[in-house]
Amino acid sequence: MMKFDHVSFSYGDKAIFTDFSYEFPEGKITAVMAPSGSGKTTLLNLILRSIKPQRGTITAPEKIAVSFQEPRLLPWFSVEENLSVVLTKKKRPGVHATIKEIIADYLQSVHLEGELKTRPDALSGGMQKRVSLARALCYLQIENADLLLLDEPFSGLDADLHREMRGLVQLAAEGKTVILITHDENDLCIADRCLRL
Ligand code: ADP
Ligand code: MG
């Protein structure tokens, strides 16, 4: 279950959420749309428990896959290692594909099959963003996470790539609870619901 129950949160005297309640539908994609600076990333940080509400309760699953607004890649690891390092499972019983193969598949899905051994610093911002997306989707699948958080995952991508990555998210996230933060009304085509802050 992913829900906010009468949550209030402020940074100092700046109120971001006041008595906010919302239950995200299970197994569905909810788009979160709001102007810049209105608390979308704060919502994610509350879910991840990196900040605590002053009032109210947040119920969130234990295992969460995330793609942050900034790619947050580890610079001393290769692209491939950035995907594997977050995994706790090194083997999948009963599944033929190895973790390495699944990682390679996801990197191919985001068109980075030629960059497995590259360090993040050598990639463009848009490429780093796609590594971060591939890492979240790979973690979601391999760790069987219950929730996928995506903070503006498509920003900075050109129109064709944007459309393709949107399709990838829709496919990879089937049956999972997804919170998709976006500015783009076109992304609503993959969402079951929209929360406007
Ligand atoms: P969004 O993701 O919707 O653009 P954020 O959740 O990042 O918005 O931020 C919401 C508001 O809170 C903004 O006005 C921002 O300046 C402020 N804010 C964000 N993080 C902090 C922080 N650590 N300390 C103080 N204010 C913050
Ligand atoms: Mg933000």
Provide a descriptive summary of the structure in words.
With 197 residues, the protein is of the alpha/beta class. It is built from 5 helices and 8 strands. A 5-stranded parallel sheet has the order 5-6-7-3-8, sandwiched between helices. A hairpin with a 2-residue loop joins strand 1 and strand 2 (14-24). The two termini are 20 Å apart. Adenosine-5'-diphosphate binds next to helix 1.
Topology diagram in text:
Elements: E1 2-11, E2 14-24, E3 29-33, H1 40-47, E4 55-59, E5 64-67, H2 79-84, H3 99-109, H4 125-142, E6 147-151, H5 159-172, E7 177-181, E8 193-196
Parallel strand pairs: 3-7, 3-8, 5-6, 6-7
Antiparallel strand pairs: 1-2, 1-4
Helix pairs in contact: 3-4
The chain binds adenosine-5'-diphosphate and magnesium ion.
Question: Could you give a quick summary of the protein structure above?
Answer:
With 197 residues, the chain is an alpha/beta fold.
